[in-house]
Write a structure and sequence with these properties.
Structural class: alpha/beta
Distance between the termini: 67 Å
Strand order of the largest sheet: 5-4-6-7-8-9
Helix content: 40-55%
CATH superfamily of the largest domain: Metal-dependent hydrolases
Radius of gyration: 23 Å
Order of helices and strands: HHEHEHEHEEHEHEHEHEHH
Strand content: 5-15%
CATH architecture of the largest domain: Alpha-Beta Barrel
Number of helices: 11
CATH class of the largest domain: Alpha Beta
Bound molecules: zinc ion
Number of domains: 2
Largest sheet: 6 strands, mixed
Length: 298
Amino acid sequence: MPSARHRCRVFARRSLIAAALCAVMLAPVAAPARAAYTGPIIDAHSHLPKADAIDALVDAMKRHNIVKVVLLGVGGVQKEDLAWIQAAARKHPTRVIAGLPLPDPTSERAADELEAALGKTGARVIGEVHIRQVSRKIERDPGDGPFSRVLDVAGKRGVPVVIHDELDEKASTALAAALTANPKSTVILAHAGSLPPARLEPLLARHPNLLVDLSGMHFQRKPALASETGPLDRGWKTLIEKMPDRFLIGIDVWAPRLYEAAMLDRLMKWTRRVLGELAPAVAERVAYKNAAALFRVE
Ligand SMILES: [Zn+2]
């Protein structure tokens, strides 16, 4: 059996048209590359490593049309989180959505303190609250008395709570119970709870008050949505396109190394490229519209 290439060579000797047709037939079939997403982005999850870091972040945001950033506390590690976040919001009021840190979420006083702080600050998001973080040996029950009252206060005031919760079997069950017990509270599961998409899907399907931020799933960390230049993971693409109202994009910068201008450029460029692999209407929701609705951006 002569190969297509051999047949082409034989035909091509006879006519120019055949030669041209053969060239088209034998060209390698390239996957259609989608263009990067070009619309506005709200980074729904980042942190400051020090008071004056905000300027470098805002400069990078301007270069990449990231219109707003939600600044969150890091869970009691930095005592000055609240002051730094509020100073950043005063300096860049159109760029910064100030989160309200809750360093000690299981203290008996947490709910009362939260209520007072929400009244005083008018914060539109609470967190990041660490429920389970293996590296810091944090293991909390989101359904315990004090944190349940925190969820209740947040729900009554319509303010979402960002949680860091590395979900294994036991932690997933505990989170599901807390979501069921507090149906009016919106919980944003940071970094997709370290779950693969197949295990996240049933949680999202069962709990309409759960959203997911895709922060910290960039090429510098694991699990990642994509390598720096590789395609968006198929499982993630399928789930995000199936539930486009439930996902927020975020970068989760914190470490000073990630605050270097060249690294911020790489991370923001990657974010746009990955969003561009989603259907355009889905990309717009995940990049901007879901966060704008949730954080009441005008
Ligand atoms: Zn974070």
